[in-house]
Design brief:
flat; four-stranded antiparallel beta sheet
C-alpha cells in the first residue's frame, strides 16, 4: 500500500540541497507529485508532496533526518477528492509595501467563506525610483457561487485603504 506524505524541510542554502533530497526520495521509490522550493535570504525552504510505499516511510524519514543542518518534518496526508472548487479565481495585488496587506486580504476572504489555495508574495524595487513594491498572487476557490462583481467591489475597497491595486480573473 502507498501513502502520501508532505515533507517540509528548511536549512541554510547550499548547492546540491535539492539534488540530495530528491535522490533520497527516489532511492526509496518515492514519487514527487507537487513541490514548492524557494531560497529566502540565506535559507532554503521546501514543501514536497510525495507518494511512497508504506514500508519505506521509516527508512526515508531516517535518511532525510541524517542530512546536516536541515530541519525535516513529515506528515501523512490523504487525497481529498471532495474538495474541488468549481468557482476559482486568481487575484493579483501590487503596490506600495505596507504592513498588514496579507492579513487584510486573507481576513476578508475568510469572512466571505472563500478558501485560499495558494499565496505567493514578493517585494521588488520599482524600476525608476527603487521604491519597494509588494506583489501578491492568490488563488482562491469556493464550492458556492462567487459573485465576481461584489467580490471585486469589496477587494477594491480594501486595496484603496492599503494603497495597492487589485485585479481578479477567473482561474
Amino acid at each position: 500500500m502507498r501513502s502520501k506524505l508532505i515533507i517540509s524541510a528548511n536549512g541554510p542554502d547550499r548547492k546540491g540541497i535539492v539534488s540530495e533530497i530528491s535522490s533520497i526520495i527516489s532511492k526509496h521509490n518515492g514519487n514527487i507529485e507537487t513541490s514548492k522550493m524557494i531560497r529566502l535570504e540565506k535559507e532554503f525552504a521546501m514543501l514536497i508532496l510525495i507518494n511512497i510505499q508504506n514500508e519505506k516511510i521509516k527508512i526515508l524519514t531516517d535518511n532525510l533526518n541524517k542530512i546536516n543542518n536541515l530541519s525535516v518534518n513529515l506528515i501523512e496526508t490523504k487525497t481529498n477528492q471532495n474538495i474541488l472548487y468549481e468557482n476559482k479565481f486568481h487575484l493579483y495585488i501590487n503596490g506600495a509595501d505596507n504592513e498588514g496587506i496579507v492579513y487584510a486580504f486573507s481576513k476578508f476572504l475568510s469572512e466571505m467563506n472563500i478558501n485560499i489555495d495558494e499565496i505567493n508574495t514578493k517585494i521588488k524595487n520599482a524600476p525608476m525610483s527603487a521604491t519597494p513594491l509588494f506583489m501578491m498572487d492568490i488563488i482562491i476557490g469556493s464550492k458556492s457561487d462567487i459573485n465576481k462583481q461584489k467580490l471585486n467591489k469589496k477587494l477594491n475597497e480594501i486595496s484603496e485603504k492599503l494603497g495597492v491595486e487589485v485585479a481578479i480573473k477567473k482561474f
